[in-house]
């Protein structure tokens, strides 16, 4: 035993991998400079970033006129984005012509909406049923009376005065919430064995899908009044909402139908074999599976709807984009070389925030529900 | 079923025809308590949101004047923002009571659309803008100039006609987009920029240094812009028309929003008639006898609304030109109130 000079009693700590196989250098070698083509592409990419980033940041941040700046600064030779213009006209971009002393009303509506929607979107939050009833039934009514007024001593504010982000959000929230159930009904109707229901649904979907949204809105604003008795007018805002909702419903219906068709026939038969009625089969067996498959498509339609709201300028409503455009054209006191560009950039950023938010949430939902097919 | 069809047909023909069979517009307006006014989506000086997000402009002031005449309250107006495609439909379908939206008075519109033009609130027309440093004082000095024009517009044709008629030659520099035209002019690619003079003024106000550019006095086309009402209701038409005339008459008689109360005691019989001190010209219009007083008190006379919205002291900076009163060399002229 003693002729063994030294026996190590514990294990040697694992040494870090050599620099060539791990760490930032290895990462760069593997991902950026693996072969001559990659190296060339990396170099081109870096050059592109060097070319695009400094002027971009220079324009939007470093040379930009801050929110408290003046129009004189915006008019200077090398001035960048004129954020002062945005902050000065923010009220118009958010509320449109909504009377300034009454703007606490839309603010409450925004706050209530966020308060009710957030727990609805978080799967773990309690009281889902109460929450849903509040959001889908109580909230719209409360919001309407808050925004329009005319009751409880609130001043009446006609919808012509609503505008900006307020209009964009109202139309898209109503559009998305209504078009989803309508779309499901249409998709089920299209698969129905009852000929009348099937024909009506097919006709509706095909008719709406074969005309551009702009045409539907145009019809609603120009043709509809001609068919109605003189003096009876349907609110333009309502017309826009109905137009947008019907349009998206048709698309939703086709998305949902895709999901329904992905469900094997065996599932339908098994559900029927359990002795479930039609609505139970659909509600408990088919739709939960089908909808899970088509979350990306549904969110796609929702995002498309959100962006399509900017088409309501056709009926003379001032949504966010149109509000920005109006101020670009008419706010003469803010005219400078960068004003309009800044306005459009602001609108783009707001749209991006909402659309990106929706898209991330849909990915989260997909992962949560994707229990059976996780790869 | 047949009944339903008939009622749909009747409804459609009513909507399309916009005929005399309708109830009086004035009664409807009085019943609902406001004037529904069709305006642009935003044209500076004519109808645009101001910094407090309230509609302002010379065309907006016309609607406010009508509201003042009817309700003694210039704020009893609701505005509908209209695109140029939907404006006439909105008017004939009764969605709006008066259209005051940079609408050019043309024969076909006046006679074929079931609408009536009330008058000309603003005589617009194509004009020329040049750099002050070039020392050009009249469009007749423009021979040989390079002219920036938007292609495919009547502007292009009008300019060609004008130069040909005056035996001058010119070079056109043509662009598809208005912004490109302005940019080219600003960059010095041409000596002259031509389009409607109110648009010239609005574009000039956006330049880095507006004072370096002048708009020449010549106007080479006719673009009379005025308010419009549905045809067939003469009472409403008269009210709109005399609202416009009252604005002019007040300027002619020197009655302004500031001195209108003093003017009530004036000995001038024309002022007495205008302000309803003597005679009653309001009742036949369906409004009170002090209708014009209310207009002037709250909105002012024509000169005031012009100066406030498009005049030389505003960013638009338009001289009165054709829009001056007839006695000042313009063509704004109101028949006498008597």
UniProtKB/TrEMBL annotation, chain A:
Topology class, membrane: Multi-pass membrane protein
UniProt xrefs under Pfam families: BPD_transp_1
Transmembrane stretches, start-end: 40-66, 104-122, 134-157, 163-188, 200-225, 344-363
Major place of residence: membrane
Boundaries of every ABC transmembrane type-1 domain copy: 165-355
Molecular functions per Gene Ontology: transmembrane transporter activity
Key words, A-Z: Cell membrane, Membrane, Transmembrane, Transmembrane helix, Transport
Entry-linked InterPro entries: AA_ABC_transptr_permease_3TM, ArtM/GltK/GlnP/TcyL/YhdX-like, MetI-like, MetI-like_sf
Annotated compartments: Cell inner membrane; Cell membrane
One Gene Ontology CC term in the entry: ATP-binding cassette (ABC) transporter complex
GO BP annotation list: amino acid transport
NCBIfam families linked: HEQRo_perm_3TM
Annotated PANTHER family: INNER MEMBRANE AMINO-ACID ABC TRANSPORTER PERMEASE PROTEIN YHDY, MEMBRANE COMPONENT OF AMINO ACID ABC TRANSPORTER
Family: Belongs to the binding-protein-dependent transport system permease family. HisMQ subfamily.
Full protein name: Amino acid ABC transporter permease
Lineage: Bacteria, Pseudomonadati, Pseudomonadota, Alphaproteobacteria, Hyphomicrobiales
TrEMBL record, chain B:
BP GO terms, sorted: amino acid transport
PANTHER family reported for this sequence: AMINO ACID ABC TRANSPORTER PERMEASE (PTHR30085), AMINO-ACID ABC TRANSPORTER-BINDING PROTEIN YHDW-RELATED (PTHR30085:SF7)
Domain Solute-binding protein family 3/N-terminal: 34-267
Domain of life: Bacteria
Organism name: Devosia aurantiaca
UniProt signal peptide: 1-23
UniProt xrefs under Pfam families: SBP_bac_3
Annotated keywords: Signal, Transport
Family: Belongs to the bacterial solute-binding protein 3 family.
Record's protein name: Amino acid ABC transporter substrate-binding protein
InterPro entries in alphabetical order: Bact_solute-bind_prot3, Solute-binding_3/MltF_N
């Amino acid at each position: 035993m003693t002729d063994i000079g030294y026996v190590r009693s514990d294990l040697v700590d694992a040494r870090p991998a050599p620099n060539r196989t791990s760490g930032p250098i290895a990462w760069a070698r593997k991902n950026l400079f693996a072969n001559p083509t990659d190296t060339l592409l990396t170099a081109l990419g870096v050059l592109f970033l060097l070319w695009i980033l400094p002027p971009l940041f220079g324009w939007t941040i470093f040379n930009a006129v801050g929110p408290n700046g003046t129009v004189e600064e915006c008019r200077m030779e090398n001035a960048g984005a004129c954020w002062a213009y945005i902050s000065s006209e923010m009220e118009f971009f958010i509320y449109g012509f909504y009377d300034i002393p009454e703007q606490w009303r839309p603010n409450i509506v925004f706050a209530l909406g966020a308060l009710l929607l957030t727990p609805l979107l978080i799967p773990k939050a309690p009281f889902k049923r109460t929450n849903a009833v509040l959001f889908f039934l109580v909230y719209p009514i409360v919001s309407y009376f808050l925004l329009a007024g005319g009751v409880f001593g609130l001043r009446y504010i006609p919808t012509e005065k609503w505008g900006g982000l307020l209009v964009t959000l109202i139309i898209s929230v109503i559009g998305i919430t209504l078009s989803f159930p309508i779309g499901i009904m249409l998709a089920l109707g299209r698969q129905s064995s009852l000929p009348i229901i099937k024909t009506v649904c097919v006709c509706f979907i095909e008719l709406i899908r074969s005309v551009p949204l702009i045409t539907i809105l145009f019809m609603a604003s120009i043709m509809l009044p001609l068919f109605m008795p003189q003096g009876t007018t349907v609110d333009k805002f309502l017309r826009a909402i109905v137009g947008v909702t019907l349009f998206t419903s048709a698309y939703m219906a086709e998305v949902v139908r895709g999901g329904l068709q992905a469900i094997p026939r065996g599932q339908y038969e098994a559900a029927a074999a359990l002795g479930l009625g039609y609505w139970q089969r659909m509600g408990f067996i088919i739709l939960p599976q089908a909808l899970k498959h088509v979350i990306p498509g549904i969110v796609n339609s929702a995002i498309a709807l959100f962006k399509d709201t900017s088409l309501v300028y056709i009926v003379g409503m001032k949504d966010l984009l149109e509000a920005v455009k109006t101020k670009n054209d008419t706010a003469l006191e803010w005219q400078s070389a960068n004003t309009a560009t800044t306005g459009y950039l602001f609108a783009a950023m707001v749209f991006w925030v909402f659309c990106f938010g929706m898209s991330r949430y849909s990915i989260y939902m997909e992962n949560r529900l994707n229990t059976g097919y996780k790869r | 079923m047949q009944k339903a069809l008939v009622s749909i047909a009747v409804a459609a023909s009513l909507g399309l025809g916009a005929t005399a069979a309708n109830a009086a517009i004035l009664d409807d307006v009085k019943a609902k308590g406001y004037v529904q006014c069709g305006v642009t989506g935003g044209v500076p000086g004519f109808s645009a949101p101001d910094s407090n997000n309230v509609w302002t402009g010379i065309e907006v002031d016309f609607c406010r004047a009508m509201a003042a005449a009817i309700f003694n309250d210039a704020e009893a107006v609701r505005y509908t923002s209209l695109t140029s495609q939907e404006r006439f439909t909105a008017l004939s379908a009764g969605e709006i009571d008066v259209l005051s939206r940079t609408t050019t008075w043309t024969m076909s519109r006046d006679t074929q659309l079931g609408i009536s033009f009330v008058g000309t609130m603003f005589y617009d027309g194509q004009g020329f803008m040049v750099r002050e440093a070039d020392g050009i004082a009249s469009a007749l000095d423009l021979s040989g100039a390079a002219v920036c024009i938007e292609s495919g517009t009547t502007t292009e044709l009008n300019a060609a006609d004008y130069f040909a008629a005056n035996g001058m030659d010119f070079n056109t520099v043509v662009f598809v987009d208005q912004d490109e035209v302005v940019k080219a002019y600003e960059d010095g690619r041409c000596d002259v920029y031509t389009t409607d003079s109110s648009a010239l003024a609005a574009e000039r106000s956006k330049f880095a240094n507006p004072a370096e550019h002048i708009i020449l006095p010549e106007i080479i086309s006719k673009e009379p812009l005025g308010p419009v009402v549905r045809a067939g209701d003469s009472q409403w038409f008269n009210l709109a028309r005399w609202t416009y005339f009252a604005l002019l008459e007040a300027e002619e008689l020197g009655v302004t929003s500031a001195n209108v109360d003093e003017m009530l005691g004036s000995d001038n019989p024309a002022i007495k008639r205008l302000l309803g001190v003597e005679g009653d010209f309001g009742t036949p219009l369906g409004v009170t006898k002090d209708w014009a007083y209310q207009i002037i008190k709250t909105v002012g006379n024509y000169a005031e609304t012009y100066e406030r919205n498009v005049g030389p002291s505003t960013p638009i900076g338009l001289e009165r030109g054709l829009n001056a009163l007839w006695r000042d060399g313009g063509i704004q002229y109101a028949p006498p109130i008597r």
